Amino acid sequence: MVFLLWFAPAVAQPVPCKGSDLASAKAAQVDAQNTLKAALNFLHGNDSKTKQLVKRWFGRNDQATIDQVVSVLARTSDWVGKVSLYCLYANDGSLVESTTAPDGSIVLRDTAGNTFAYVDPGDLTKINLGLAFFNAPATGTDGKLGAIIHEVTHFFLTGNTDDIRYGRDDCLRLAGQDPDSALKNADSYEYFIEDWLA
């Protein structure tokens, strides 16, 4: 009788962030939660500045649009502080060659260190952070705070957003051309919050 042993190739998995990286990511997480709470108060004010900012990033500023933005950001605020932070590299600073999403459907390679972050929308427990996240500023355009908000809006129970468009210019065009898609675009929420904070 012959026994065949088969071993699946080892795929590096994200590891819980530690040390200064964990402290940096936790600070961004706390900043995101505090900023979301303040922004929700701003949105409830429903003044001309609110309507102008909503129109800029979501293409419309009617009450239904404002309510949709409030709904996504409120659910995001509820979850942002509850997720664990994972790094796409070993805690000695070396890059992880590849990693798969928890459901096994996505393979990421971060050999150049330019992966920012990703989540599995069905797993409300974690955000996976790449080296680009740690090289970003704490706040401002494409900062750590905005990245955390962007990722948490992807969860099925928060905003179920997609990555329809990336970058400020493409998101502004999306708002002008397709407001319904802007309301489903994660970067649109990130830039709305970053603009509000500025």
Automatic annotation (TrEMBL):
Pfam family, one: Aspzincin_M35
Top-level taxon in the UniProt lineage: Bacteria
TM stretches of this protein: none
The UniProt record lists the keyword Zinc: yes
Alphabetized UniProt keyword annotations: Hydrolase, Metal-binding, Metalloprotease, Protease, Zinc
Cofactor: Zn(2+)
Lysine-specific metallo-endopeptidase domain mapped to chain residues: 41-194
InterPro entries associated with the record: Fungal_M35_metalloproteases, Lys_MEP, MetalloPept_cat_dom_sf, Pept_M35-like_proteobacteria
Xref: SMART domains: Aspzincin_M35
Family designation: Belongs to the peptidase M35 family.
Entry protein name: M35 family metallopeptidase
